[in-house]
Please model this.
Amino acid sequence: MQPLANITPLKPAPRAGTIELRGVGQVFRTATQDVTALDDVSLDIRPGRFVVLVGPSGCGKSTLLMMLAGLRQQTSGTVTINGAPILQPDPNRVGVVFQEPSLFPWLTAEQNVEFPLALRGTPKSERRARAEEALKLVGLDGFGKRHPHELSGGMKQRVSIARGLVQDPPVLLMDEPFAALDEQTRMTMGDELLRIWAATGKTVVFVTHSLTEAVYLADEVVVMSARPGRIVDQLQVSLPRPRTYEMLSGDAFGALRERIWRHIRKSA
Amino acid sequence: MAGNLGLRIARLAVVVALFALWETLSRTGLVNPRLLPSASETLSMLGDLLQRASVRNDLAVTATEVVTAFALAVPCGALIGFLIAENRSFADVVKPLLFFAFSIPKSIFLPMFILVFGVGFAQKVGFGFFSTIFIVIMSTTTAVESVKLDYLTVARSYGATPAQTAFRVYLPSMLPILLEALRISMIFNLTGVILAEMYASRDGIGHQIATWGENFQMKQLLAGVVLVAAIAIAFNEMVRWVETRCSHWRT
Model:
């Protein structure tokens, strides 16, 4: 009989929504010089977590997101989701919401949400049903037949979120999704996103420039430095959920925001 | 809507006034009626002409030439324009050359077309094609370049194949500009074909108009002008109507 301690346990299969970055680097080669955008970034994100990336402009946070989306390949290191590397866009694992809602103006809200399904040849009736469900989830029940130009900025971004969720991927990537919205809409959309996140249990990776937004939304804030982009701090936000507007003026909130700001001021 | 209606009435008034002026100038003899037959006489001549089998035949000949030249020039031009826009280095080489070619008046090549194709269908279609293709190429290039990078990124992130990207993103995104291009191309095309007919031809409405002019048949000549103008305007407005329906795609 071997002592139990010597038995190597089988590595458990990663749960859907696990993200692993190992020594990830990105070098842009130009004619005159090599620019290191990301340097040795390692990060573990557990399923269902809400992780926010912040950092000064040019810290590579969007680049990192594009790698997770499979839209860009790292020059070194590995990026895995659900334990498998991301080599190209994989809509089954990842939904993406961009800064501009980037809805197709020639399609209705409904058709925009159906777009990812249409690409894979999902039958029309199923497409319609799933788009309807996704629109309901983001609070746009009954707006499916409108075209993007008939929707407000916030509503467009809701459609974009519905499009990201329609294939039910375990991970939702969001690249400054609310940056173009006015302050009030932005706050509302933050609450809406938290509600959707709580309802779906997705892993969310969210990039923003707003420190308030970062602390308000996140379980964990990852702070990055300017070129070369490195992780300089990871903050656990232990504020209770649901988050409320009153928390914004609390001491705990202020302390977290200040800690992030000090990092950013240093590296900018 | 009231302002819109007002505008329409004002426009109609201008047209009516022009015809009235034309009528008056001719009737009062301020302009020699042999040089400028009155509007009413011209319009009744137009009615007459449309009854004639020979004129109808001319119109059919011209229409066939125009449609054939257009049907050849638009896909060819669009394909070349697309390839140019998609290929950076090729575009750098070819684009300025296209601008040079576009700036040359196409009519100076007409004698060559007659030498190559003879006088007939091929000469007119060939010249119509030649008059049209440059504008189609250039418009398509512009249309392709107008497709927002955001749209392509979205398509890519949801795993679109190149064919899906072409048909589901490029084509609808380019459609408003393509329609405008189509409209302008038709102007060039019609000009090309009619010019070729007027220069050397045995039939076609352009040939007929040239003949009326040479024979000093002013009533017929003016009626022919009104007819061709009406056809060209009708086509233009038809495409413009489709254009306005997808105008909100341009953002």
Remarks:
- Chain B has a mean pLDDT of 90.
- The radius of gyration of chain B is 22 Å.
- Chain B has ten helices and no strands.
